[in-house]
Amino acid sequence: MLATEIEAKPFLKWAGGKRQLLEQFELEYPESLKNNEIKTYIEPFVGGGAVFFELIKHYNFEKIVLNDANHELINTYKSVKNEVNAVIERLKEMEEEYLPLDLEKRKEIYYARRDKFNAEKKELNFNKFTKAHIEHAAKFIFLNRTCFNGLYRQNQSGEFNVPIGRYKNPTICNEENLTAASKALENVILTSGDFEKTEKYIEDQTFIYIDPPYRPLPGTKSFTKYARADFNEESQNRLADWAEKISEDAYLMLSNSNPKNTDPEDNFFEELYYEFSISEVSAKRSINSNAAKRGEITELVIKNY
């Protein structure tokens, strides 16, 4: 799989996305990647895919595996990969219907479509792929492009419950980028489930970038409810145990929050990843509902090399 000249970018907005960190990440990657010696690339938590879309522009891989616990997300990737023209056609219809409306009419359409999305997901078998899955993917993209802050959040019943965002002219269908993303995904293996299931794809010269839901910063109410079950501290510990287990078989690079932004005495990650190297990168994030407390913070990059 040769590095592509296609300038594909993430087609979804994603909370905690890594686009702003890509230049800093370039300094953190293993030398084997920079020397094009890495054969397999794996992301157990693909999210919006910013790192994936950037890496394939510059590096050659024989195998790429993108996974996420969010079945709707992976269904959307599969739909863009396999049926991008159908996705584009449906999104154009949604865009043409939605954009001319005032806010009240937009609310009617947004919440009706959100209800249909939640009803559909209860009926879909995500182990198969049908026309219904393409329609579901189009709704996913529509909701992502029009909801508040591009969040994906579920309630206790597993229903998407993010309210409408107040955008004047949201881009619902970026045909050029969706087409480019489809090309970029052409030979990618897409899986949905727990991060540990990606272990079976590890081969000689594998690089794994791990970007889990972040541990909340001490004293803040950070978002962790990415799916019905929280990615809590028990999950963070299980992830660290898994990283240690596979550390001898692959190059690992993990991202997470830096608790020292709010509590200089919090050594959670130093203790959890005591055998790994830990560095910091700068990010512009909102860590508080108070606008005065938004700005540049640091995040952690944790590596086994």
From TrEMBL:
The keyword S-adenosyl-L-methionine applies. It is an enzyme of class 2 (transferase). One of its GO terms (biological process) is methylation. Keywords: Methyltransferase, S-adenosyl-L-methionine, Transferase. It catalyses: a 2'-deoxyadenosine in DNA + S-adenosyl-L-methionine = an N(6)-methyl-2'-deoxyadenosine in DNA + S-adenosyl-L-homocysteine + H(+). Pfam families: MethyltransfD12. S-adenosyl-L-methionine binds at residues 14, 18, 68, 211. This is Site-specific DNA-methyltransferase (adenine-specific). Belongs to the N(4)/N(6)-methyltransferase family. It comes from the Bacteria. GO terms for molecular function: S-adenosyl-L-methionine binding; sequence-specific DNA binding; site-specific DNA-methyltransferase (adenine-specific) activity. It comes from Halanaerobium congolense. Its EC number is 2.1.1.72. InterPro entries: Ade_MeTrfase_dom_2, DNA_methylase_N6_adenine_CS, M_m6A_EcoRV, MeTrfase_D12, SAM-dependent_MTases_sf.
